[in-house]
Amino acid sequence: MEENKQQLEQNKHEKPMSFISIVVVTGLIGGILWSSIALLAYFLNFTDVRPNLILEPWALGNWKNGWIGTVFSILVIGLLSIGAALVYYALLRRFNNIWVGMAYGLVLFFLVFYVLNPIFPGIESFWKLSKNTLITTACIYLLYGIFVGYSISFEASERSVRANQSNENPA
């Protein structure tokens, strides 16, 4: 009886994460990863924009310019990125194409740096930013869009294939 119980436990499979959970984790990791890379680009003088700018309109005090502000900014960007990943999931998940993710990243770039620019006093106007800043941040947003978009689209495609296979081969 003991042996039978162990065999049953060994044959149990872990329940996979729900699609929404995967989207949330992808958004969080994408935001943290690419804002950390943006911080590295700032330290290497490729861009004049650092992740701490996200706190400028809302946080008071000088703490936001130190390392605590930097870590908090990266975490806030990760949380905001969950929303961006959910938008991609809702609107674009069926497109299993790298170009859609690239376009999504560039749309986010123009949304932040052109449309939402007035709420961030630490960022110069779009047309006054240096070429290095524009190119570097556009590339980071482009890669973020590819990361989030392709991850979500790939998972949607895989789930669709698995669903089709299970419908064809009912066990």
List the defining traits of the structure above:
0% strand, elongated, 68% helix
Question: What proportion of the residues is helical, as a percent range?
Answer: 55-70%
**Strand content bin:** under 5%
The value of Rg in angstroms is: 21 Å
H and E order: HHHHH
Count of β-strands: 0
Q: What would you call the structural class?
A: mainly alpha
So what's the overall shape? Answer: elongated
Please work out how many helical segments DSSP would assign: 5
> What distance separates the N and C termini?
27 Å
Low-confidence stretches: none
The profile of the biggest β sheet is: none
How much is the average pLDDT?
Answer: 89
Number of structural domains: 1
Question: What do you see in this structure?
Answer:
It is built from 5 helices and no strands. It has 171 residues and is mainly alpha-helical. It has one domain (19-158). Helix 2 (19-43) crosses helix 3 and helix 3 packs across helix 5. It is elongated and about 60 Å long.
